[in-house]
Amino acid sequence: MAQISVIQGDITTMKVDAIVNAANTGLVGGGGVDGAIHRAAGPELDIACRKLGGCPTGEAKVTPGFRLPARFVIHTPGPIWRDGSFEEPKLLRACYVNSLKRAVENGCQTIAFPSISTGVYGYPLKAAAKIALTAIAQFDAPLQVTMVCFEDAAFSAYQAVLNELD
């Protein structure tokens, strides 16, 4: 079982085996956490991402971390929230599960996640936190997982859900 912690901070500074990027399906640097990761990793990340040919929503692909302290970046495009009836919960859960699978496949023991889909993609924060933390808690691998929340609201939501799960 995964060990989960929630912190407030900047995912680009995490010294872990892998960080997860809340990517877009084209895997081209966008805004929010995606843009921050691309800027911190350097131009090599853009080149590596272009070679991957995009990534469907809910799936996950891996690149080196380049200039980041993390060895790998796991890119997963989250769903855009419409109203919850377009498989958004299923797709968001898949982002976390598939990212964890890629971490295990690459020999990772530590992984850091952002709050996927809750920024410009508009996923309701509390619902996203519950899906994320439940998916991670149910994943059967001895990983140390850190949820890295940039904003106060995300930190509070994830901490509250983690307390409910304990």
From TrEMBL:
The protein, known as: Macro domain-containing protein
Q: Which SMART domains match?
A: A1pp (SM00506)
Q: Which PANTHER family match?
A: GANGLIOSIDE INDUCED DIFFERENTIATION ASSOCIATED PROTEIN 2-RELATED (PTHR11106), MACRO DOMAIN-CONTAINING PROTEIN (PTHR11106:SF27)
Q: Name one Pfam family in it.
A: Macro
Q: Which residues form the Macro domain?
A: 1-166
- Please name the taxonomic classification of the source: Bacteria, Bacillati, Bacillota, Bacilli, Lactobacillales
Which spans of this chain does the record mark as coiled coil? none
Q: Which SUPFAM superfamilies match?
A: Macro domain-like
